[in-house]
Amino acid sequence: MKIKNIIAVLLLVVSVQALGQGNAGMQRLPNGLQYKIYTANPGPKIKLNDIITFNFLQKTDKDSILVNSFEVNRPAMLQVTPTKNIADLMDFFPLLALNDSALVIIPTDSIFNGPQMEGQRPPFLPKGSSLHYVIKIAKIQSMEEAMAEQQKVMDGLKSKEAEGLAKYIADNKINAIKTASDLRYIITKPSAKAKPVKGDTVLVNYVGKTLQGKVFDSSIEAEAKKAGLEQPGRTYEPISVVLGQGSVIPGWEEGLLLLNEGSKATFIIPSQLAYGPQAMSEDIQAFSTLVFDLEVVKVKRAKKLTVPAAKKPASKPVAKKPASPAKPVAKKPAAKAPAKAAPAKTTTTKKN
C-alpha cells in the first residue's frame, strides 16, 4: 500500500474514533462549526491572504466518503479570505499551523438554509445531518511565495517539454515544416484541391496521440477500438469545425488553414498551441506536446451574404437657368408673290 493511502486510512480511523466518542473534546465556533485539533504544532498560524495547501477527507455522518484527496494525491490549494459561509472553513483555518491535522464537523442545516438553498440539498445530506472533514495542512505561503514557486514549477515543466520534443523529433527522424508559432506539420498525402479560409467549415478525421505514442482520442472507430477507447453510443465520423471561431485548439486553427481538401497531415503541436498549463486528463498533463494525424475530408465554403445594392438617392431637379431674353430680330419684308402669268390668249382666225 502506498504511503499516501496509509495516511488516509490512519486519518479515517482517527476520525471514526473521534466520532465514536460523540462530541467529546469538540470545540465550537460562533457560526456552529465544531472542530477538534489532533496536533498542535509550534509555529505561526494561518493568516488572512495566506495561500494554503492541504489534504482532506470529506464524508457524511454515516461514514460515506465523498472526497479523499489523499488517495488521488491532489491536495487542495486556496487563498484564505474573509468567510462567506460556514462551508468555506475560512473561520477555522486561522486556528491551524503547518502540519496540523484536525476534525471539522459542519451541520448541513447551516449550509442549506432558506427555501432556495433547501432545494439544492442532496438526498445523502438530509435535515439534521452533518459533513465531516479530516484536514492536514501541508503548506502555508504568502502570495508572493506561492507565485514564485508556481513559476518555478511551470519553468521546469516547459523545459521538460522542450527536451521531450527534441528527443521525439530526433528519435523518429522527423523532417517537419515549422511555422513561426512553433507548429510543426508534415503533409503525408498532398492534394490539389482548394484550401479552406476562415469562416469555412471543414470536416476532419483525426487520431490524437502523446509523444509517447499513447492514443487519447480518435474520430475513427477502428482507431478507437485499437486503442481501447471505443465509447458505446458515440457516432464515429469526421468532426465539423468552423475555422476562425476558436472552437478548437490554436494548433488546429492554424494548421487546418494550411491543408487542402482531401489532404492528410501530421501536426506536432506544442503546449502553447494546445492546452498549456492545464492538465486535461491522465494522458494530457500540463505542458504536453500533442501529435495529431488528420485528414481534411471536405471543405464547405461559408455562405456569402448578398448585400442589396444601395439605392442611389433620387437626383434633385436641377433648376433651369432662365433663358436670356431673345433679341428682337428685324423681320425682313415678305417677298411679293410673283404675278401669275396671264393665260395665253386664243387667236381666232377668220374664215373667208
Task: Write a concise keyword list for the protein shown above.
Chitinase A, domain 3; alpha+beta; 7-stranded antiparallel sheet; 19% helix; rotamase; isomerase; signal; 352 residues; peptidyl-prolyl cis-trans isomerase activity
Structural features, described:
Residues 306-352 are annotated as: Disordered. Residues 306-328, 335-352 have a biased composition (Low complexity). Keywords: Isomerase, Rotamase, Signal. By secondary structure, the protein is of the alpha+beta class. It folds into two domains: 3-142, Chitinase A, domain 3 (Roll), CATH 3.10.50.40; 173-300, Chitinase A, domain 3, CATH 3.10.50.40. It contains six helices and 14 strands. It has helices at 3-20, 69-72, 115-118, 143-171, 221-226, 250-256, and strands spanning 27-28, 34-37, 51-60, 65-68, 76-79, 101-107, 130-141, 177-178, 184-189, 201-210, 215-218, 239-242, 264-269, 290-300. The strands form two sheets. Strands 1, 2, 3, 4, 5, 6 and 7 form a seven-stranded antiparallel β-sheet that branches. It is elongated. The model is unreliable at 1-9, 15-22 and 322-352 (pLDDT under 50).
